[in-house]
Predict the structure.
Amino acid sequence: MLCVAAACAVALIPITLSAVEDDSSPIFGVRIPVGYRQWELIAPSHETGSFNELRGILGNPIALKAYREGTLPFPDGAILAKLAWKREPSTEFPGAFVPGHATTVQIMVKDSRKYEATGGWGFGRFIDGMAVDRAQHETCFACHQANVKDHDYVFTRFAP
Ligand code: HEC
């Protein structure tokens, strides 16, 4: 009986741990924020090449207030969400392009103390609601830092 119980425990632990890890990003522990799909649009974007994606960048009310008032750096509590879809030709109108299947949801959370080492931002990339691996999360800050250090590591500007 003891052996059976021990075997059960060993089998159950990894399942529990991986479920906990999956919806929060490695390194940063960022999760997809509740209600993000109702946030306001900051700007759309389009990446050509192999990504060939349409994106929508949304922000929570703290982020939107900072955009409107031109506040930099963004205050703690600001959250940015980037939603991406494959860009597909419309079947209903030639020349129009529409979102195909959703590829990633990416999140940046401002907490200047917790994420001091990465410009005050915590990063998370999710596919179907699950965080991608650690190696991908090691790339986030480096690219944002290399290109938009002077805009608090944020690429997106407010679309009028
Ligand atoms: C090679 C460069 C590069 C890497 C690596 C990268 N990003 Fe970005 N990121 C961009 C660019 C360029 C944009 C501007 C919007 C767009 O292209 O859709 C962006 C935009 C964003 C935005 C919207 C806010 C903003 O800065 O405009 C979030 C959120 C984001 N990235 C999260 C992440 C996360 C999370 C990772 C790591 C898993 C990551 N990024 C890695 C280039 C990068």
Summary: The first helix runs from residue 2 to 22. The two ends are 68 Å apart (CA to CA). The beta strands are 40-47, 53-59, 79-89, 97-110, 121-127, 130-131. Residues 45, 47, 55, 57, 80, 82, 106-108, 123-125, 136-137, 139-140, 143-144, 154-156 surround heme C (CB under 6 Å).
